[in-house]
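#data-curation
PF: Archiving a pair of folding outputs for the training set. Convention for this channel: one message per protein, sequence first, structure tokens after, nothing in between. First:
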Amino acid sequence: MLAIVIPYYRYTFFEETLQSLANQTDKRFHVYIGDDASAQPPTALLQKYDSQFSYSYHRFPTNLGGQSLVQQWNRCLALTKNEKWVMILADDDVLGEEVIATFYAHLKTISEQKVAVVRLASQVIDKNSQPISAIYQHPTLETGTDFLMRKLQGGTRSSLSEYIFNFESLKKVGIKDFPLAWSSDLLAVVECAMHRPILSLNEVVMFFRNSGENITSQPDSVEKNQGWFMFYSYLINKYGKNYPKQLLASLFDGLEKTQLNHKKTPKRWLTIFFLYLKFLKWNRLVLIFFKALKSIK
């Protein structure tokens, strides 16, 4: 059975999300809605879908997403009932009507290939549900390392709603609690698929909403910068010894760029120095020192 977990907070586009679930041609899923003490509870709206798909609704007494989105995701995941597969669907994203049917149609391949992460094709839509991007598709089978390399090279996009995780694999790696959950979802995908492939279902689409209201729509911030820094430094420190040279170099490039965009962070400079020391990257240390001096001048 598949659990679809929705961390709910904003009402604006929620009916479109629910309608996309009602439109599924295969209803073998249960929806868990965790209301983050929202200003507009969706209880009246949910009654409209009582007979259209299986769901559970829980309203939390306090808002947690304002402090930590990852902690809000985790308490929503805790609402589930031992399902083997889980999708975390944003309250403004939309699924194509054949998503669930296509997932179940590929269970044999998933089992044979020992897949830990299933990925949907995706397309970005605006607040009026109009497409503002091409449809992003992917290699049918791809390791987490290869996906990470493509992502760092700007060859693809990624958002949490397009993934279906093997729940045990997700529990083992956990979702790292970065500010605004920025890159937390990407890291979860990479770690879940570290030794098992990602299977892409390119024939079905998840529509990611760039509405101007969600975090992705907002300009770069100190919190997003910190999220990227934690992402890069974590991967380098934990997996860098096993990564190909090109991937490790790309991770260091990202780390340095992130740091140069927010230089007044002494603890982060110490982290970078430790990583240069661990990987003997003295040439990079000299280069970033001169780049920092140049930018200050």
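PF: Second:
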Amino acid sequence: MKLSSIQRDILIGTVLGDAYLQKTGKKNARLRLEHGADQKEYLFWKVKNLQQFFQGKPKYLERIHPISKQTYKYWRHQSQSMPFLGKLQRIFYKNGAKSIPEKIEKLLTPRSIAVWYMDDGYYYLRDKCSYLYLGNIEKTDAERAARVFNQKFGLNVRVLAKKKGYALYFSPAEAIKLKLLIQNYLLDYFKYKLPS
């Protein structure tokens, strides 16, 4: 499948972030996007930029958490199932779980990092530092990501263990360097995730 560099970066950042590549058969997979109700515009932006993967329109859904009984409101869209996404699924998932591919340095660009950060990044105002949550991946995968940020982008990040996996930690100085790297690709809605 032929993708523009923008589409490729959005897809890579999305797969590293909140998206789920669901295996459908031996060779195919589909891309599932889910974002909270307040991020509707963000989901629609992704769908618009990756329109050759999707048919129909995103759906608004609500579900009640079985324990907290809180209502979770969100938007979802699923792509068509196709071999191209099946290949991507095999690159980004090991034994059914998301992972950081061994050749991640070839896939990461400032724009793909920006999309990943819009999905899973956080700026902690009090301490003026940033985090990029990696989820429940293996520590070696988190260390691989940190190495690429350091060697390819000159960002000195640390791997931190969190309750639900790992995160990359950007000190105040590194958070400013991260901002300079990705700010031109962040949607205005997400500027709050950067140092002022």
